[in-house]
């Protein structure tokens, strides 16, 4: 993907799905714009159509070394260098049993 001269993400480009679990927990406004469930489903369909014939690099990792606060993360990238960058940022899982039951 080529973003041109604009490589940073603007705070105003963030949307949150507005539904019953987020309705009263989000400070809605300029920086937390509501995104409907229908809009989200349409976006997922577009992404799935795009990804249909593509190859991706996928890895399951952990964020946070302390097992009490560990966060499971699945990294999906288009390029190998992006995946390698993520591997340096997150903790690799070596336990095959843990990977079999991994849910990000």
Provide an overview of this structure.
The protein is an alpha+beta fold and 104 residues long. It folds into two domains: 9-52, no CATH class; 55-104, no CATH class. Helices cover 29% and strands 21% of the residues. It contains three helices and five strands. Strands 4-3-5 form a three-stranded antiparallel beta sheet, covered by helices on one side. It is globular and about 40 Å long.
Number of domains: 2
Q: What structural class do the secondary elements suggest?
A: alpha+beta
Mean pLDDT: 89
Count of individual beta strands: 5
SS element count, helices: 3
Topology order in helix (H) and strand (E) letters: EEHEEHEH
- β-strand amount: 15-25%
As a whole number of angstroms, the C-alpha radius of gyration is 17 Å
Helix content: 25-40%
**How does the overall form come out from the CA principal axes?**
globular
| Largest sheet, strands/sense/barrel | 3 strands, antiparallel
Detail the poorly predicted runs: none
N-end to C-end Cα span: 25 Å
Which strand order does the major sheet show?
A: 4-3-5
């Amino acid at each position: 993907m080529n973003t041109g001269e604009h490589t940073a993400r603007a705070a105003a480009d963030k949307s949150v799905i507005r539904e019953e679990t987020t309705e009263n927990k989000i400070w809605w406004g300029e920086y937390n714009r509501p995104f409907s469930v229908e809009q989200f489903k349409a976006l997922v369909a577009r992404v799935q159509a795009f990804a249909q014939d593509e190859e991706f690099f996928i890895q399951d990792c952990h964020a946070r070394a302390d097992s009490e606060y560990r966060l499971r993360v699945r990294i999906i990238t288009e390029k190998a260098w992006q995946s390698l960058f993520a591997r340096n940022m997150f903790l690799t899982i070596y336990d095959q049993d843990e990977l079999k039951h991994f849910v990000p």
